[in-house]
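Fold this sequence, please.
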Amino acid sequence: MSIDVRPLCRSDSSGCIIEMEQTVDMVLDIERSKRPHDNPIPRPPPSQELRCDTSKPYASADACFPLEVSTTQSWALSEIFGRSVKGSCLATNSHGDPTESVCIRVPDEHVVEISNGVERKIAAEHKRCFILDSSKAFEMILPQQQSQAVVSRQPPPLYASRSFTGHGQERGGVQTLLTNPSQDKAISFVYFESLPWFMKPYLHTLRAKTTTSPSPPQSAIITSMYYRPALDRQRGTQLELQITVPPAST
């Protein structure tokens, strides 16, 4: 989960507002999420429900090589999360019209069933968005269907990984690898680091370098910095860095 807070100022400098955006990313196993409703204890499925490849030489009543699944897994919001969506988002767009409360990215040929709401398709993004009725419960169902189509995944603008090195206050450290996959454009972003109060980084040991040759000076990589030191047993360390990574480099 992440919360992004950023100021938005009017072009005429008449005032500014603070915009907050919350993002929650989840990876769900649909089959496992649906299990508690009718099979709360994990156990293998009965043999008669297995789909086996009988062309294998070792195929028998005791040996099963599973067939490749050719259909999509059916699911519904109430099956995954235990309830449907009640109500709608009260926010409106710049024209005063209601905003979409639920969006889903699926191939165009997939069937999506809804209980109510107004659907809007965005073909370029393979996205379907729905404006919900504030007085009714919204249910979305994706039935099982024969389809091998998948929505292509857009490459991320940045790859990031963090690890701890060494041990103790003297030799311990934090290492972060930031990779820009673009071949022709540099990327600039704010890197946020939060550490508990008992981990005290020393700013004079901060080093930044790239894999490009020759590597630009550290002042060209870290263009701005904000540091709030930790207080023992009260708050952790907060470090924000404005970083620029050249194209095709780490």
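Helices lie at 30-38, 77-81, 168-171, 218-221. The chain has a mean pLDDT of 82.
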